């Protein structure tokens, strides 16, 4: 086997990163609430080539599944940390509701979103965080997030 030398670790890292991007999607965990009474758990599969995400969340108590696609609709002029991007999409739920969701990034791999159905019901979520981190974020930031979404 040939030794690639001291710079080979950089090559291996580049190949690994390329494999992730060439595989199509990057998965982010989602945690949130559905009508303030139920916990949502799911994933967002982000496709960096198309700028779209497939979102799927399940409510723990009522066993409702919501899924759909979203796309970016806003990009800041300049962002070193990935904050300030935004997007929207529709999530269709197994109970017949359709939520129009809007999301915003906090960093390259984290963000939050709010969805509303036609009856004014709300769905809130964060993505890219572990469950306890998401819970803490929502407890602290939910009033601000909801005020921005009005």
Outline the structure in words.
The model is unreliable at 1-5 and 7-21 (pLDDT under 50). Helix content is 22%, strand content 43%. The longest helix has 18 residues, at 131-148. A hairpin with a 3-residue loop joins β1 and β2. It contains two helices and eight strands. The chain has one domain (24-148): Lipocalin (Beta Barrel).
Q: Write down how many β-strands occur, each being a DSSP E stretch of 2 or more residues.
A: 8
The level 1 CATH classification is: Mainly Beta
Number of helical elements: 2
Low-confidence stretches at least 5 residues in length (pLDDT < 50)? 1-5, 7-21
Radius of gyration: 18 Å
In CATH, the topology is named Lipocalin
For CATH, the homologous superfamily is named as Quinohemoprotein amine dehydrogenase alpha subunit, domain 2
Structural class: alpha+beta
Order of helices and strands: HEEEEEEEEH
Task: Describe the largest sheet.
Answer: 8 strands, antiparallel, barrel
Strand order of the largest sheet: 1-2-3-4-5-6-7-8
Q: Could you give the distance between the termini?
A: 62 Å
CATH architecture: Beta Barrel
Considering DSSP H and I runs of 4 or more, what fraction of the residues is helical? 10-25%
* Overall shape: globular
Strand content: 35-45%
How many separate structural domains? 1
Mean pLDDT: 84
């Amino acid at each position: 086997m040939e030794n690639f030398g001291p710079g080979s670790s950089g090559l291996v890292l580049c190949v690994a990163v390329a494999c992730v991007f060439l595989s199509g999607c990057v998965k982010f965990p989602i945690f949130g609430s559905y009508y303030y009474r139920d916990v949502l758990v799911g994933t967002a599969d982000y496709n960096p080539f198309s700028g779209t995400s497939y979102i799927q969340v399940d409510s723990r108590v009522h066993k409702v599944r919501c899924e759909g696609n979203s796309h970016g609709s806003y990009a800041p002029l300049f962002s070193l940390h990935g904050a300030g991007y935004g997007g929207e999409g529709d999530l269709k739920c197994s109970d017949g509701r359709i939520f129009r969701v809007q999301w915003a990034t906090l960093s390259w791999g984290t963000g939050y979103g709010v969805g509303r159905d036609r009856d004014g019901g709300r769905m809130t979520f964060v993505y890219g965080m572990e469950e306890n981190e998401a819970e803490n974020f929502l407890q602290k930031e939910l009033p601000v997030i909801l005020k921005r979404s009005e």
